[in-house]
Amino acid sequence: MILSMIDLTTLEGKDSPGKVKQLCYKAAHLHDQHPGLPTVAAICVYPNMVPVAKVALAGTNIKIASVATAFPSGMTTLSAKLKEVRFVVDAGAEEVDMVISRGKFLSGDLEFVGDEIYQVKNACGAAKLKVILETGELVTLDNVRRASDLAMNAGADFIKTSTGKINPCATPAVVLTMLEAVRDHYVQTGHRIGMKPAGGISTAKQGIQYLVMVRETLGQAWLTPDLFRFGASSLANDVLMQIIKQNQGNYQSSDYFSLD
């Protein structure tokens, strides 16, 4: 289940077409020697790498996700953000991961933040919108809850913890706060919003702990890639190691798995 919920991610300044192609190959051939396991949900890359990923993933059911809106800082104009969103969607991105303007949020200009999310959602067209709160910069859980409610009311399809560039990233307290916001939004509106913890989740045991949290807070309906994702780069390797250990009875070396 964890494998099917992973957004296999590379968001580094040293990313190259070759690295993205390798990541896409890994996503499509994650476990050729162990048939029956699901593929990851998506590949998440920078905007200029979307065309590369589209070619590399042709013929698979793996979705292409792209960060946008001046990731990770969000420090540019709204017109530039909307232009970038339209670019990634036109290039083939099926999911867009935007960042909110944390400076505006922390200064109390919630209307600006909400309107920005609303306009980005419109620019996404048919693509799903994941709104990154960057909870490590929001300081308090009250702010995390307020930002979660704001993003969902403005049109987010998913709310996401972090860019992975600011610590702390996903933590149990933050994730629970966001899951409770998703639950309350569903009770009030009947509309299911997805949730994506990202950053710092690298082991199968951590993944299972978060799945338990989702199950206890939101119920079985959210245990699907359509409503829950992990933003991760190394989580898939550890999950595969644990599955092979269960099947064969002995641990695998991490050297048997590609780093990217």
- Annotation field: number of helices: 9
CATH homologous superfamily title: Aldolase class I
**DSSP helix fraction:** 40-55%
According to CATH, what is the topology? TIM Barrel
Please name the CATH architecture. Alpha-Beta Barrel
CATH class: Alpha Beta
Our count of domains comes out at 1
Strand order of the largest sheet: 7-6-5-4-3-2-1-8
The number of strands is 8
What is the typical, i.e. mean, pLDDT?
94
Low-confidence residue ranges: none
How does this structure look, described?
- The protein is an alpha/beta fold and 260 residues long.
- The chain has a single domain, classed as Alpha-Beta Barrel (TIM Barrel), CATH 3.20.20.70.
- Helices cover 44% and strands 12% of the residues.
- It contains nine helices and eight strands.
- The protein has helices at residues 17-28, 50-56, 78-91, 102-106, 110-124, 141-154, 172-189, 204-218, 235-248, and strands at 6-9, 42-45, 63-67, 95-99, 128-132, 158-160, 194-196, 230-232.
- An eight-stranded parallel beta sheet has the order 7-6-5-4-3-2-1-8.
- The longest helix has 18 residues, at 172-189.
- It is globular.
- The protein starts with 5 loop residues before the first strand and ends in a 12-residue tail after the last helix.
- The mean pLDDT is 94.
